[in-house]
Amino acid sequence: MTNRQPVSAADAPKAIGPYSQAIWSGQELFCSGQTPIDPATGKLIDGDVTAQTHRVFDNLAAVLVAAGLTLDHAIKCNVYLVDMADFAAMNAAYQTRFSAPFPARTTVAVAGLPLNARVEIELIARRA
Ligand SMILES: C=C(N)C(=O)O
């Protein structure tokens, strides 16, 4: 028997590969990386890294809501950028989606992201 309890969010993009949108493990929820896919079309949105970051957070929020949580439950985020020149703009959008104290975070630049997204963010959340 698996200890992986999946979360399925109709308002977030369907997985584009063999992964769950999120998995509960005990009190912690591991949310797969979200790219700026519009769940209505299944396609990447048009827009710069600011718009892409907000779409990513809308998608993460939809997954969290399906699990009975919100972004306030996030404890760790990993941010992937294809161009570190987007760091400041990503931060500006990012900081509007949380209130202090901010979750722990790591940001790295990567060689590429699915569907040619500029940003992907994954997070871990914890219920009380
Ligand atoms: C988009 C993803 N989270 C993936 O391909 O792993």
From TrEMBL:
Keyword Hydrolase: yes
InterPro entries linked to this entry: RidA, RutC-like_sf, YjgF/YER057c/UK114
SUPFAM superfamilies: YjgF-like
One Gene Ontology term of the molecular function aspect: deaminase activity
Protein name, per record: Rid family detoxifying hydrolase
Leader sequence residues: none
CDD domains linked to this entry: YjgF_YER057c_UK114_family
Keywords assigned by UniProt, alphabetized: Hydrolase
GO CC annotation terms, alphabetical: cytosol
Organism: Pseudogemmatithrix spongiicola
Entry's family note: Belongs to the RutC family.
Keyword match 4Fe-4S: no
